[in-house]
Amino acid sequence: MSSTPLLQMVEGFLGVVSSRHKLITANLANIDTPGYRTQDIDFRSELQRVVSTEPGSAPLTPVAHAVPGLLQRPDGNDVNLDRESLLLAETQMQYQLGVQVVRSEFHRLLSAINEGK
Amino acid sequence: MGLFSTLEISGSALAAERARAEIVAANMANAETTRTPQGGPFRRKMAVFSGAGAAGFRLLLAGYSRLAGRGAGTVRLTNVVEDTTPAVMRYEPGHPDADPSGFVAYPNVNPIQEMVDLMGAVRAYQLNASAVTASKQMIQQSLDILK
Lengths: 117, 147
Fold this sequence. Notes:
The complex is a heterodimer. Chain A is mainly alpha-helical. Chain A contains three helices and two strands, in the order αβαβα. Chain A has helices at residues 5-29, 43-52, 81-113; strands at 39-40, 65-66. The longest helix of chain A is centred in the last third of the chain and has 33 residues, at 81-113. Chain A is elongated and about 65 Å long. By secondary structure, chain B is α+β, with helices and mostly antiparallel strands. A two-stranded antiparallel sheet of chain B has the order 1-2. In chain B, helix 1 packs antiparallel against helix 2. The model of chain B is unreliable at 54-68 (pLDDT under 50). Chain A binds chain B through residues 15, 18-19, 21-26, 28-36, 39, 59-66, 81, 85, 88-89, 91-92, 95-96, 99, 102-103, 106, and chain B through 2-3, 5-6, 9-10, 12-13, 16-17, 20, 48-51, 53-54, 57-61, 63-65, 72-75, 120, 124, 127-128, 130-131, 134-135, 137-138, 141-142, 144-145.
């Protein structure tokens, strides 16, 4: 339960970002696993789903799917190192953004509690 | 929890890649070994990796679903197999392990191939180590909200 609508939204955002981060780590971990297909989530639709659900309902399970159109190696593995490292950096930045928003929101609340002092 | 399980995933990859580097080191160390407990020359070993999260894409995100077991998305070394290519025969009539026609069976280890494999293992290890750093920073940022 989040105290403000903004916090609730950022909570959903951070949830989607961390699930994506987890998938990217799994892709990197399986870079030498024969037959492994790169997994990802559709960020936009997942975020929309999370933001549009009512507060207090059961947490949603993000849908992971195999990424189409990647070059496959002869062993059936299609993990692209550049794609994953870029996405790793991207999710890190997105997470930092979310955390900064949460912090500033808490500071705003604190300043209201302190009567703006 | 979502972020902490990423450390588990990257950790499994670090362990698997380290094991692979160890197997490569054993191959290179035994590149000239003509006697083994099983008899005959040393045979080149190869690591076989398999992913634990292969079943069910939807259940891959264990942090959100109770149905998915722990360790989804991790990788592990499931098997070490022997390379079946024939041994390299070298003509060394004076060698104690030479056959009647003077040929000695040497291991089917190609040092160049092993070096390339070692580089691959080291790079994959570095890659996963940087994924650990990224996860650690994200966890640290979350903890910094409390400050």
